[in-house]
Recover the amino acids of this structure.
């Protein structure tokens, strides 16, 4: 583990594992400790993963000002990590809400990004709309799963405007390519690793300006890989294609049968896709 200071003095931590050139990894949640990323399907055999614990999560300190949990302000923390590592440019990977932070960093510091990997990224920073019909299209093929009736009924309640915690908890299986005991335990651990206060502030206020971000991304020359899961209701493949098209030099790969955590659903496929791109 390495520690360093953010521009406002908050002590931050990052975890290093593996061998090879560094790959900076930003976790989702939002504001979840980076431990859930693990070795990202065996990527540690090819690259040194540098998993950043965002402020207020994992081994990083809680900031004095809660307003600094906003994702646009966290860009400065990523830049501080780059400077601490002494790298003129970084290869950057963001998962889910961490993809939002990675995109905002690339938009603000395009010259600092070597290669960009977005794993099932949130569409929010670029304003890609996902219709209920898009989510239904990737949910319907899973009718044969034993958990489907209860989970789909909860989805229908959400589509009807019932945004309860119970309904959102009930649709958790749709985020996974399979829903067995291991995945249920993984999902339970996830909930314990999120800083709820920080998560509430992540997208708050005017943290996002999709039009400005889209415009900035047109100047990004870094090769970009967007990884989507064929079953991911968070970013269905159809919408992932729209997202990828916003980048000047992007490719999209879709994991067959994969969910929101593709390194768990097919580690070999995931590691091969990422290492092939980074090479």
């Amino acid at each position: 583990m390495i520690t360093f200071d953010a521009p406002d003095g908050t002590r931050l931590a990052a975890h290093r594992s593996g061998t090879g050139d560094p790959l900076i990894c930003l976790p989702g949640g939002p504001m979840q400790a980076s431990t859930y990323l693990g070795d990202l399907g065996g990527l540690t055999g090819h690259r040194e993963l540098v998993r950043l614990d965002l402020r207020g999560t994992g081994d990083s300190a809680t900031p004095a000002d809660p307003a600094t949990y906003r994702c646009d302000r966290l860009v400065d923390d990523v830049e501080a990590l780059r400077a601490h590592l002494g790298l003129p440019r970084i290869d950057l990977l963001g998962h889910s809400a961490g993809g939002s932070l990675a995109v905002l960093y690339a938009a603000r510091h395009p010259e600092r990004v070597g290669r960009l990997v977005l794993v099932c990224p949130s569409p929010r920073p670029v304003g890609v709309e996902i219709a209920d019909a898009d989510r239904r299209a990737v949910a319907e093929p899973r009718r044969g799963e034993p958990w489907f009736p209860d989970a789909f009924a909860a989805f229908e309640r959400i589509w009807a405007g019932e945004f309860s915690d119970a309904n959102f908890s009930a649709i958790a299986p749709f985020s996974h390519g399979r829903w067995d005991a291991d995945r249920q335990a993984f999902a339970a651990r996830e909930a314990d690793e999120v800083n709820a206060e920080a998560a509430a502030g992540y997208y708050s206020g005017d943290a996002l300006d999709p039009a400005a971000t889209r415009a900035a991304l047109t100047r990004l020359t870094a090769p970009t890989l967007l990884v989507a899961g064929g079953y991911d209701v968070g970013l269905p493949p159809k919408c992932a294609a729209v997202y990828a098209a916003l980048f000047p030099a992007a490719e999209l790969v879709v994991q067959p049968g994969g969910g929101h955590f593709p390194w768990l659903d097919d580690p070999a496929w995931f590691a091969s896709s990422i290492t092939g791109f980074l090479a």
Observations:
- The chain has a mean pLDDT of 96.
